[in-house]
Amino acid sequence: MTKPAVPKRHSLPTSPFKAPVALPPKHFEVGDRVTHDTFGLGRVIALEGGIAVLVDFGSAQERITVPYARMSKL
């Protein structure tokens, strides 16, 4: 038999086991200028219902999916 998973308690402010901080989701609009770690500078040209964005990087158009970890708005 296995033990059920129990969430860790983070009661002390000085604890080295602090609760992970959830980053707010990134939100993009058509026309936003963005930068991507691999593809460089681009402009959002289409949205796919919160699942992905289509970005024109000049030499190519790329579909970037959520959570957009390597892309940020300028």
TrEMBL record:
Tree of life domain: Bacteria
Protein name, as recorded: ATP-binding protein
Organism: Streptomyces marokkonensis
